[in-house]
Amino acid sequence: MLRYTVERLRNHIKRMHKKIILTGDRPTGPLHLGHYVGSLKQRVSLQHTHSQYIMIADVQALTDNFEHPDKIRANIIEVALDYCAVGIDPHVSTIFVQSYVPEIAELSVYFLNLVTVNRLMRNPTVKAEIEQKQFGPSVPVGFLVYPVHQAADIAIVKGEVVPVGADQLPMIEQYNEVVRAFNRIYNTQLFPEAEALVPAKAARLPGIDGKAKMSKSLGNAIYLSDSAEQVQQKVMKMYTDPQHVRVSDPGQVEGNIVFTYLDVFDPYPDEVAQLKEQYQKGGLGDVALKRRLIDVLNSFLEPIRARRATYAADRAAVYELLKEGTAKVCAVADETIHSVKEAMQINYW
Amino acid sequence: MLRYTVERLRNHIKRMHKKIILTGDRPTGPLHLGHYVGSLKQRVSLQHTHSQYIMIADVQALTDNFEHPDKIRANIIEVALDYCAVGIDPHVSTIFVQSYVPEIAELSVYFLNLVTVNRLMRNPTVKAEIEQKQFGPSVPVGFLVYPVHQAADIAIVKGEVVPVGADQLPMIEQYNEVVRAFNRIYNTQLFPEAEALVPAKAARLPGIDGKAKMSKSLGNAIYLSDSAEQVQQKVMKMYTDPQHVRVSDPGQVEGNIVFTYLDVFDPYPDEVAQLKEQYQKGGLGDVALKRRLIDVLNSFLEPIRARRATYAADRAAVYELLKEGTAKVCAVADETIHSVKEAMQINYW
Predict the structure, then answer these.
(1) Residue A228 Cα, gap to closest chain B Cα (Å)
(2) What topology is assigned to A228-310 in CATH?
(3) Which terminus, N or C, of chain B has the lesser number of Cβ atoms within 10 Å?
(4) Is the dihedral of CA A91, A94, A97, A103 positive or negative?
């Protein structure tokens, strides 16, 4: 009887425990529609079902921007404003700034002992990024070791779920290797393994030039903070079907970025289906089509802009929110480091 | 006139400023006569002319002992007792424990961005140690990056003088490269370059087996905490001249470790000179010679043992001394990190 009650209580507690998410962004520029589709939208809903930590990863951004800390500095608040603008509630999610949690650095030092140099060199994500960033033989050590630092980001809040793109899966593998090693060597169960939350394939939005990925560095992004005019200009330059010259010409729908965006953002999929039919037959001009997308995007962005403007009117208050979130994480981090040192037996007094 | 006064004041302040020393030991075992001759003796006198920080480098010791933190844990207090025993005054020198200064880890993360992987791989000290420790292809990342962490150790207290063996000179070179890069990139003069203080060649004491270096891992060390009996046993096993079988045989002085030790520790060099002559001619037995060394070493070690016993009687008080020293360093470290973040412009609030 008693045992039955204990079991029920346990299950109840288990149901009550909201899984811990760690996610975040490098503050190297304002966030764009690609971020919205790929992660921000998901965060807005996950914040109610999970205990969600969102990290503004300035330390990580510095690993390949260490000569431009001013850029990072300027984008801390922009990213925070973007979060609030899309509906991430800073009183529900915990938004924090990485560099203000020194315990992450502290933990990463102990994690660095648990990974071999060879293992790091073989990490496919790191390999690809080193190539992409064209460091040549001059990879900064900070960049090479960032998967280990990232492991400390997750571990410091004991993250259980980490939303990542498919290309980032090796990072979660690396994380699980590190915490398994830690738990084994120091005979503890301190760190749960993390589960990758990979978004559906549709969640990757192409840039306005039709390139696979929307990104600041490629200059093909529509930002959440773009004005109605900027959105109009960018959509007008959008890649469609180069063969579709006159209105009466039949046009291609596949690979036509305007339709890709309508599929994602247009609230009336039936009408989009009709438009596709018309476009393929001929008789629907690019300009008319783009006007629809401009309306759709601006309707979508309008409440985001409005919320952004409200928050942006009092930037000091936004910094206060970041301070509060960071203080919450510091308290958690302090507890984690305490347990880490206890497990490692390096708590001498 | 005014200018003259200002200049005099400046020079006065300059004379008043005691140069900052950072030094320390990895707490992997008790300290031995080799440590005394190579560094401890020097520290006892430097503490009065310099502002001396002595770090018990547990974090660094963990880079190649991460599976045996219990060994590190046990040796923290032993090393502290050895310091106090030889006459390092914990109220004059600042003795601290590395892992309790998280700002070192924090600073090292920013320093990691300023060093390339290739540069680290070329560091002669690291190369030699990786070979010596036989890591093979499994060098822990923590071990590879330790010169950068060591740079953070020095920088956190703005060290100006670092006593090192000649084999460690590349570490100081690495340090100066890192702080030059930091000062240049972040347009600051925060970190002075450090000067290596290399001991005289005579400062390396061979092991009792005649091997070049006294070391715990070679099992050829006489510890500062050895009892009179242990010293006697070790000296009796000491390497002399294998050809010197009978008392009347002429013996070799060069490479005769007993004489090497007498040269270092015997307070009567004239008598040692006479003994050498007698030994070379024949008529002086190894046992008689070793008895003298036993007396010399035990006379030397007696006050050290006595001081050690006094401190060891109240271990809690020694931990208090470590706590006090560490708190002093934390205050300095906090200031340094504050200036670092200011220089990097990553102080957002």
Answers:
(1) 30
(2) Tyrosyl-Transfer RNA Synthetase (1.10.240)
(3) N
(4) positive
